[in-house]
Amino acid sequence: MATCAVCGNDYWMAFEVRTVSGEVHTFDCFECAAHKLAPICEHCQVKILGHGVEVDGRFFCCAHCARSEDERGAEIRDAVGARPA
Questions:
Q1: Which pTM does this prediction carry?
Q2: Residue 33 forms beta bridges with which residues?
Q3: For the chain, what is the total number of helices (H) and then of strands (E)?
Q4: Biggest alpha carbon distance in the chain?
């Protein structure tokens, strides 16, 4: 059994997530994984669980938040995978 890094639950079906930087985290559910690993929108402070928007290394949950916080955000369209020119 393995212990969840967030809630401490010792669970036989726990799983590991390995990040690009090489960190390894153990979780007992996706909720705990999202709580620990999901980025936070720089405008509204919600956890970004979907595609989100990245502008110059800053992360936002949607195009609206990107447009509200960053001058380059105006170039963002509300489409998955859209990037500023």
A1: 0.72
A2: none
A3: 2, 6
A4: 49
Inter-residue contact 3 to 10 (CB < 8 Å): yes
CA distances (Å), origin 42, targets 52, 71, 77:
11, 14, 18
> Where does 1-85 have alpha helices with state H?
30-37, 63-69
Closest residue by Cα to residue 10 from 1, 21, 19, 22: 1
Are the beta carbons of 12 and 24 closer than 8 angstroms?
no
d(CA 59, CA 1): 35
pLDDT of the chain along its 85 residues, tens only? 899 999 999 999 999 999 999 999 999 999 999 999 999 999 999 999 988 888 888 899 988 898 888 677 667 766 555 565 5
SS3 state at 41? coil
State how far Cα 24 lies from the chain centre.
Answer: 16
